[in-house]
Amino acid sequence: MKKNIQRLLLALLILMLSAVYICGNILYRGYQENIAADNIQRLKPPVDTAESLMDFEALHTQGPDIIAWLTVEGTVIDYPVLQGGDNAYYLRRDIKKQPNKNGALFLDYRVRADFSDFNNVIYGHHMRSGKMFQNLVKYKDRAFFDRHKTGYLYTPGRSWRLEIFAAAVTDQNSAFYRYAFLSPAEKDAHLHMLKSTALFYRDIGVTAEDVLLTLSTCSYEFEDARTVVLARLV
């Protein structure tokens, strides 16, 4: 009987030590990945205030697929934007193409890298740590949406100011992700859809002549839900 109790206690001890090891390993990996995300933010180049341009030469030595830098004011979103050959590559890779659960912010591969298309979608993970695009879900709060209206998008040849005008909860296959428009009428219809289905909408006079930026991350209202935040590039 005594030996059985000793064996049971030993088994429990081994189980507890294994659980501590596994949890510690998971926490350590998460810590390392969060540090990596913070280090990426520290790569942000200076901005030439006279021309409002960012120096991308040093960035391209860190990640050749970097096409832009996105900053959303009043949030932790302050990261480089990449573009891969599909919409899966940078889901689990960082700017150096190394495995990382944070992934990277990336532009839909089907639009042009200079953001000259009508609807330019940038994807990013909703991380529990608050990294990447987690802060987008804050736009589902009316007070937050009303207070946080601006940001910047820097590219090697041009910089834009973001005028945030809408937030919505949608699904991964919705029209919010449409990238091809054949006429001004189709663009007008898209804008009407945005206004009629948005959770919150700010009328800033967006037209078919404007360039839209759609920021997308996972949401959890239903299966495959997405939170999207829309801005006009000016």
Strands of the largest sheet, in order across it? 3-4-5-6-10-11-8-7
Strand content: 25-35%
- N-to-C CA distance: 79 Å
Radius of gyration: 21 Å
Oligomer: single chain
How many runs of DSSP E, i.e. beta strands? 11
Mean pLDDT: 88
The helix/strand series, from N terminus to C terminus, equals: HEEHEEEEHEEHEEE
Instruction: Classify the helix fraction into a percent range.
Output: 25-40%
Largest sheet: 8 strands, mixed, barrel
Account of the 3D structure:
A hairpin with a 4-residue loop joins strand 7 (150-154) and strand 8 (159-171). The protein starts with a helix and ends with a strand. The protein has an 8-stranded mixed barrel with strand order 3-4-5-6-10-11-8-7. The protein has a two-stranded antiparallel ribbon with strand order 1-2. 28% of the residues lie in helices and 26% in strands. It has 234 residues and is of the alpha+beta class. It contains 4 helices and 11 strands; from the N terminus they run αββαββββαββαβββ.
